[in-house]
Amino acid sequence: MSNILEAAKVHFSDRMSGDLKCVNVPEWGTKVYFKPSMNFKDQGMVLKLHGDNKPAEAVIMTLILKAMDKNGVKLFTRSNMTELLLTVDPEVVSRIVTEMSDDDQPTVEDAVKN
Length: 114
Prior knowledge:
single chain; mainly alpha; two-stranded antiparallel sheet; 56% helix; globular; rbstp2171
């Protein structure tokens, strides 16, 4: 059994340590980089917000948790939540988060449906 757990951990570690992907954001004059996966703890924060009927906060939290610069440094912190909710174009944020979604990862909507 421990061999399976070790294989699962290696698989996830490989996904998390691989090359960063990026989304071009011309509106902000930059690219936003991200890793294709999130751990369960981070996914749980997003799913809790969605489950609490706070979809906008769930989208912003996804951006906060995943968005990085080209060096892998986080662009935002949780303390930026309110500012991002009130002062940033929601269409741009939604597009970024949508492009960050990996086809083989369930979306928040998929998880809530199940």
